[in-house]
């Protein structure tokens, strides 16, 4: 694997060069205390309250698994990230984050900050679940690009896997491009601004198409 533009990695195989995206890093957040406080205030003691409190504990553990440790470039790691993202989507309408009743601040670093081609702030802290969702989805896309770049393109099944993960990355970056400004309601770091993720989406889609070309000509 060869280092190319700052923050991006290039894998070289045959005559093809493929780019992957680094992961964003997040500070630790305790989800249990504020969410449990809301649950106990909103639901009477009993089985329903206990069930919600257990769910809060599991969500906190899931965040630590998804964001609190280095992730292998493997499908199992991507599944953990995607599961956490799905859980965030699930709880968003059930808790009054938008009403500022829950004191939860999420801090994320710019993925391209060190020697960045894109520049931008080092990190951004927001009391916004939409911000957390956006950053987690960015990591889903970034990890998918890394998994794709690790594939052995001399192998037919690996070529199919690479194309799938590049397409997944492209779709995730495209979704961020369309939703990030409304999710944050303020200026994002440069790695997740619409122009950056739009460019990354285009690159990932082009790489998926190149993989299909390699498969067709092999």
Describe this structure in words.
It is a single chain. With 218 residues, the chain is mostly helical. The chain is built from six helices and five strands. The chain has a three-stranded antiparallel β-sheet with strand order 1-2-3. Strand 2 and strand 3 form a beta hairpin. Helix 3 packs antiparallel against helix 4 and helix 4 packs antiparallel against helix 5. The N terminus is likely disordered.
Key structural traits:
single chain; 218 residues; mainly alpha; three-stranded antiparallel beta sheet; two-stranded antiparallel ribbon; 5 strands; BRO1_sf; Rhophilin, Rho GTPase binding protein
Strand content: 5-15%
Task: Strand order, main sheet: write it out.
Answer: 1-2-3
Question: pLDDT average, as an integer?
Answer: 87
Summarize the helix and strand pattern as letters. EEEHHHEEHHH
The number of E-state strands comes to 5
| SS field, number of helical segments | 6
Tell me the radius of gyration.
Answer: 19 Å
Distance between the termini: 22 Å
Largest sheet: 3 strands, antiparallel
So what's the overall shape?
elongated
Structural class: mainly alpha
Proportion of helical residues: 55-70%
